[in-house]
Every structure is written in structure tokens, then in C-alpha cells.
């Protein structure tokens, strides 16, 4: 680790429901270094978004609760920090771009009103100065006629434009950490490329560390330096993007990469991993991926493997202690 800006240690986040406790995030460890882009990938329901909400202190409680583990920002433990403390950090030091911009922006306030509010909460600025800053931010994220856009409402903008507004809002206070929860979902491919290019540009120009949550391995390959692969609330593999893509060790990661369509392969059917993601908490012992794994041994169904390795970590009994 060089200079970790964010560290997550043995984080366990459970949801307490009428059906019992559901381990949405089940003991994960990772870190983000200053100025790097870390990718977190996995199928829907693997715990990616719950991880981000836990880090930001935005977990709906009840029913969600962090039951153990540590979240450190700049070396300071913020796991159970008071709401007043978290408000100072959120938006100012750490910011988040949510998955669906239409539900993240308030439909009854103009773009300008929402940007100005976000700026003035954290910065001591007059309304006029905050308005000028808002126009600058909209220009920074590549939106045309920014001085007119601040007087428009979210429904008057396209999906790509709303997503750019969300990025502008997240970057309004120059955060050190930006969490992007599937920022290109539901956007067409050309807008996706523009949004990703914009985020890489902001990362290089401002030095903001980015946690990119996605299920798209193409996004990871394009913008990330390291990647964390999650399955059923646990990290199954972590390493540099080039190592994961060229030498995947975990059968789940191998399956994800094999399922990427190949333009040069004339096969009629695409590869898919057999079975379905287990319901959280339904597997009590053994490796969570064992029921779907073509390499599973008897002990895989009874023994939970440890996450082993240093720069390239893997949770699999096929890879013994090295």
C-alpha cells in the first residue's frame, strides 16, 4: 500500500428482516490509494452497492446495519461516526454518483438550485458566487449552454446530461474520494464512452480517487488500475486489471471473462456460468461459489477458503498457501 485514502477492513453489513438476518456484505477487505481508480465488479446482488452505502454512511437503518469491521478515511475511523461528522465528510471529502440520476435529482428544483445548495452547504460562498461556480462545473463536465441549463429542471435534460449534472454536483467541492455506482447504466454506448472519458479526465486533473462500481468488465478494462471481484457478499479475487484479465485465478472470474462476447469467435452460443447467485445467507458452510463451480471438490462444500496472496489475491482452495 502506498498512500491509502480509504481502507475497508473485515466489513460486515447485515439486513435484519422478518425472515432473519441477511449478510449482504460478509467480511470484505480492500483499500483505495490516493488518485487511483479501483473497480468493484460482480453480478447484481453481490453486495457492491451496499458496500458503497456503508462507506458513505447512507445505509438505510433499519433494516441495514454494520455489524463489524472498520472503515477508515485518511487514517480516521468513520465506521460509527456521528451524523454531524459524516455530513462534513460527505460531499466535501467523499462524494457519490448514484446509479439513476432521474431519482437522485429533485424534480421540483432547477439544476442551478440543486448545485448551489450542494456548494453552499460545504463552502462559505454567497449565492452569486455559488451560481458562478455552478456554471463553471457544468462547463467542466462538457455541458453546452451552461448559463441556461441552471434554470432548467431535470425532466428537461436527457439521461446523459442528467448524469453529467450528477458528476458536476459530486465534484463541486473537489472531493478526495468519488464513489461511482454504475454511472453508465441505462446510457447508450456513445454517452457511456463520454461519461467514462470525463471521469478519467477529472481523475487526472484533480487527483480524485475513484471507486468504480460496475458489472461491466469492459468499463473496468478501460478506466481502472486495480479491480476487486465480489460474489455473494465476499471478495473472491483482487489484483491489477492486467493480471486479472490475463491470468484470472478464481473460477468465477474465469467464467466472467469467458462470457464476454468475442467478435472473432463464430460460436452460436455465448458462454454462461451455470446456476444462479445464491440468496444471501442460504449457504451456511463451504465456498459460496461451490454449487456453480465446475472444479469443485468435496472440501469446497464444507470449508470456506481464505483470501490468499499479496498483489494478486484469490479466495479458492485450488490455490494453496504459497
CATH class category label of the domain at 4-83 and 209-315: Alpha Beta
User: Separation of termini?
Assistant: 20 Å
Instruction: Please name the CATH topology of the domain at 4-83 and 209-315.
Output: Rossmann fold
Number of DSSP strand runs: 12
The gross shape turns out to be globular
- Under the CATH scheme, the architecture of the domain at 4-83 and 209-315 is 3-Layer(aba) Sandwich
CATH superfamily of the domain at 4-83 and 209-315: P-loop containing nucleotide triphosphate hydrolases
Order of helices and strands: EEEHEEHEHHHHHEHEHEEHHEE
Helix content: 25-40%
Structural class determined from secondary elements? alpha/beta
Q: If helices are DSSP runs of H or I spanning 4 or more residues, what is the number of helices?
A: 11
Strand order of the largest sheet: 6-7-8-3-9-10-12-11
Which parts are unreliable, with pLDDT below 50 for 5 consecutive residues or more? Answer: none
**What Rg do the Cα atoms give?**
21 Å
Q: How much of the polypeptide forms β-strand, as a percent range?
A: 15-25%
What about the largest sheet?
8 strands, mixed
Give an overview of the whole structure.
By secondary structure, the protein is of the alpha/beta class. The protein has a domain at 4-83 and 209-315: Rossmann fold, CATH 3.40.50. The protein has 11 helices and 12 strands. It has helices at 48-56, 83-89, 101-104, 111-122, 127-140, 146-149, 159-170, 189-206, 217-223, 241-246, 251-258, and strands at residues 4-17, 20-33, 37-41, 64-73, 76-77, 94-97, 177-181, 209-214, 226-231, 234-240, 307-308, 313-315. The strands form 2 sheets. It has an 8-stranded mixed sheet, sandwiched between helices. Helix 5 (127-140) packs across helix 7 and helix 7 runs parallel beside helix 8. The protein is globular and about 70 Å long. The mean pLDDT is 88.
Amino acid at each position: 500500500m502506498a498512500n491509502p485514502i480509504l481502507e475497508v477492513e473485515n466489513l460486515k453489513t447485515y439486513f435484519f428482516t422478518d425472515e432473519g438476518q441477511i449478510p449482504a456484505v460478509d467480511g470484505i477487505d480492500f483499500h483505495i490509494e490516493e488518485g487511483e481508480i479501483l473497480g468493484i465488479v460482480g453480478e447484481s446482488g453481490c453486495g457492491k452497492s451496499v458496500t458503497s452505502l456503508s462507506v458513505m454512511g447512507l445505509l438505510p437503518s433499519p433494516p441495514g446495519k454494520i455489524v463489524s469491521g472498520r472503515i477508515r478515511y485518511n487514517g480516521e475511523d468513520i465506521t460509527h461516526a456521528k451524523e454531524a461528522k459524516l455530513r462534513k465528510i460527505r460531499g466535501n471529502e467523499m462524494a457519490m454518483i448514484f446509479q439513476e440520476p432521474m431519482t437522485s435529482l429533485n424534480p421540483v428544483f432547477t439544476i442551478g438550485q440543486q448545485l448551489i445548495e450542494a456548494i453552499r452547504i460545504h463552502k462559505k460562498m454567497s449565492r452569486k458566487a455559488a451560481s458562478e461556480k455552478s456554471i463553471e462545473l457544468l462547463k467542466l463536465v462538457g455541458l453546452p449552454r451552461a448559463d441556461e441549463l441552471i434554470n432548467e429542471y431535470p425532466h428537461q435534460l436527457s439521461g446523459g446530461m442528467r448524469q453529467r449534472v450528477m458528476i458536476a454536483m459530486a465534484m463541486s467541492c473537489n472531493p478526495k474520494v468519488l464513489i461511482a455506482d454504475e454511472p453508465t447504466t441505462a446510457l447508450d454506448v456513445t454517452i457511456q464512452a463520454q461519461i467514462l472519458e470525463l471521469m478519467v479526465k477529472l481523475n487526472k486533473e484533480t487527483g480524485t480517487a475513484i471507486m468504480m462500481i460496475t458489472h461491466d468488465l469492459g468499463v473496468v478494462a478501460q478506466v481502472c488500475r486495480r479491480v476487486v471481484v465480489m460474489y455473494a457478499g465476499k471478495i473472491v479475487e483482487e489484483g491489477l486489471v492486467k493480471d486479472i484479465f490475463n491470468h484470472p485465478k478464481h473460477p468465477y472470474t474465469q467464467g466472467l471473462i469467458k462470457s464476454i462476447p468475442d467478435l472473432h469467435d463464430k460460436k452460436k452460443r455465448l458462454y454462461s456460468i451455470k446456476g444462479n447467485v445464491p440468496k444471501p445467507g442460504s449457504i451456511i458452510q463451504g465456498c459460496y461459489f461451490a454449487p456453480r463451480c465446475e472444479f469443485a471438490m468435496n472440501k469446497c462444500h464444507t470449508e470456506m477458503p481464505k483470501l490468499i496472496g499479496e498483489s494478486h489475491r484469490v479466495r479458492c482452495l485450488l490455490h494453496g498457501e504459497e
